Amino acid sequence: METPFDIIIVGAGSAGSVIAARVTEDPNKQVLLLEAGPDYPDISETPFDLVNSHNNSYQDHDWGQAYRPTRGREVAFPRGRVTGGSSAVNTTIALRGMPEDYDEWADLGNSEWAWDNVLIAFNRLERDLDFGHEPYHGDAGPISIRRYPMAELLPQHQAFLSSARDLGYPDCNDANEPSSWGSGPHPMNKLGRLRISCAVGYLAPARIRPNLEIRANTLVRRLVIRQGRCIGVEVETVSGEVTELSARLVVLSAGALMSPAILLRSGVGPKAQLEQLGIDVVSDTPGVGQNLSDHPALSVACIVKDASIIDFDAPLIQTILRYTADGSDKRNDLQIEQISFTGKPGGRPMFAIAAVLEYQYGRGELRLENADPHVNPVVDNRFCEDERDVTRLVGCYKDALAFTRTGALADLVEQVTFPDPARPADDEAIAGFCRRICASGYHPCGTLKMGPDDDPQAVVDQFGCCHNLDGLVVADASIMPGVPRANTNLTCIMIGEMIGEWLRTSPTRYGL
Ligand SMILES: Cc1cc2nc3c(=O)[nH]c(=O)nc-3n(C[C@H](O)[C@H](O)[C@H](O)COP(=O)(O)OP(=O)(O)OC[C@H]3O[C@@H](n4cnc5c(N)ncnc54)[C@H](O)[C@@H]3O)c2cc1C
Fold first, then answer.
1. Is 295 designated active site?
2. Given the residues 133, 137, 443, 467, the one annotated as active site
């Protein structure tokens, strides 16, 4: 084995980059950050798809992962494969969950994650250029956040806000104000076109430190485990060379799909699945790959009257409506988003309105097809199998349709093409769409959930320490007990801030 490091971090994504940056503030900790994708240390030499926050990067830095949203078809499930991880390819919506989301985690036996605690980390991670002076915001963190002012909104987004007002929703200038709801500009971690990913915000200033080594193009195949302790990782370079690297502690931050896949390949997971795949069982841990939580979404598609407002080079998203379903006790459990363009360049000029379920009761599952580290896991989201999810998504979809019939947004619409206006769009028909063709908001989490050791489904404790394996911490979207009522990037960065700070300030808790 190669010279030991104090900590090996697997995955330079939203959480892993933050942990690398925070832990190496202590010059006595030697850290190796491993990333399967490439690394671009210099923004001027970074490929355009990573710089350009106006649209997602789906191909050039992607894992080629697929998933089944419902029992039907399999579709692409983008995940960033590059330093910065999915934060380097995403839409840059910078939304926090509801305070109740984190209090719910605390109520499940994870008291450290109560809102009052995580708010400190949310404030520390951001430089909010609009509301940084407020006590519930930060003005000096690595991630710059701003909102498009009215004058910079595309016509369809200006119209969306106007129609929202006509429909009776209140204006909301700061969707991250903890008690807020209504429609307004999205908080976004972008400056002009530049995406402020975790590679830009966290790794760029940290990478000059002599105690941080970033090793890109290095695939972690599995963990090296001896006598119940994780002592390192088995890695493969792009040229196919396989070696083992050791450290006093391994932090798994490969994301909600790849972190459980690595654990399963290492023999930590549901015993029956491991035996079926011929993987030696190190620890029968039933929760690995279970509890998959996400945001199901369904869109209305519209042809517009004026083709000049559809520009595939413009920002994909600028505005949001956050609100609560009728009769629901989960505040802001729904989102409606104006999507600036859809379809293909050169096709009919179209935009979309997305209805998104933000508080999901149902759960999905992830498992391995085989033990080959080059084969992606099988992902079944099982959206809309819980009737509480169907009912609220149907309501949200009807509310999204109302925008096409109301005020300034209706004036832009030539024709709604989905749902087909020639067919009935009653509750039953919409529920059928939800059960068959709703799709992910690209926010998988929960597949290695945290919880006390008397919870049979919990894989790690609230500090990220693996219940059944010494020397291993998990810190990424997979440890969330459930998806928060917000796009997940800021929450993943917050997880990196929380666990990164604990590693730095309480190393003995982690055996360091
Ligand atoms: C297209 C898209 C758009 C999105 N838009 C938004 C948005 O606008 N706002 C928002 O809040 N959220 C958004 N999200 C979700 C958000 O970006 C993710 O929830 C978040 O980035 C996940 O962070 P993570 O640290 O858990 O994992 P990731 O950021 O995905 O990091 C995991 C890292 O581990 C690496 N890795 C994985 N396996 C291995 C291995 N075996 N060996 C070595 N390295 C490995 C990966 O390459 C990656 O760099 C979007 C996601 C996508 C894909």
1. no
2. 443
